[in-house]
Write a structure and sequence with these properties.
- By secondary structure, this protein is of the alpha+beta class.
- The protein has 3 helices and 10 strands; from the N terminus they run H-E-E-E-E-E-H-E-E-E-E-E-H.
- It has helices at about 15-25, 80, 140-155, and strands at about 40, 45-50, 50-60, 70-75, 75-80, 90, 95-100, 100-110, 120-130, 130-135.
- Strands 1, 2, 3, 6, 7 and 8 form a 6-stranded antiparallel β-sheet that branches. Strands 5-4-9-10 form a 4-stranded antiparallel β-sheet.
- The longest helix is centred in the N-terminal third of the chain and has 15 residues, at about 15-25.
- The protein is elongated.
- The N and C termini lie far apart (about 125 Å).
Length: about 180
């Protein structure tokens, strides 16, 4: 007596698994991930700290942050190479939570801001298997001048510096500059 088995429309689990893998492998290389999974940078601004300052890069990794890299570039160069003396450094990457959302953060720390820093481009890069996001920042001169004015106002001696004022007049007697101050 021979036993026979008749399949009534169901597929074997291994065949279904192969089909799912083929679809996934065809889908993966196209980079067609939902945009919700791609990392996104949340723009921040430069914050002064004494003579130095900090630019924070806060990002939603989109993908589990174990697979996400966050780093800074200075004029398209790694920070360690651009500032080997360590005047400008990256902080350690840290996980933060804002309004219940898991984010990652890495700061760019300036020990002292110099003239060359205003001419440099600082780019935060967040890279994951689902995409990449970049944010380029330049320290605005206006902010730097306001900061310098605030700091110098606090160090004043109370004495006014003499101003040079030139006035054209039709008087016969020449006047000294001090008369106009």
């Amino acid at each position: 007596m021979a036993l026979t088995h008749t399949c009534t429309g169901s597929q074997s689990p291994s065949r279904l698994l192969v089909l799912v893998l083929v679809v996934f492998l065809c889908y993966l290389p196209t980079g067609a991930f939902p945009e919700d999974l791609a990392p996104k940078i949340i723009p921040k601004r430069f914050v002064w700290r004494g003579d130095g300052g900090v630019i924070s890069c806060l990002a939603d990794p989109g993908f589990p942050d174990d697979f996400t890299l966050i780093y800074w570039l200075v004029n398209r160069t790694f920070v360690e190479k651009a500032f080997p003396e360590g005047r400008v450094q990256e902080s350690e990457e840290k996980a933060v939570e804002v309004n219940g959302q898991a984010l990652i953060q890495r700061d760019l720390i300036f020990q002292k801001v110099s003239a060359e820093d205003y001419r440099s481009d600082y780019t935060c890069v967040v890279n994951s298997p689902t995409g990449i996001d970049r944010f380029t920042f330049r320290i605005p001169r206006r902010i730097a001048e306001e900061h310098r004015n605030e700091r110098s106002a606090g160090k004043g001696t109370g004495r006014r510096r003499p101003r040079k004022i030139t006035k054209l007049c039709k008087s016969k007697k020449p006047r000294s500059e001090e008369e106009f101050i």
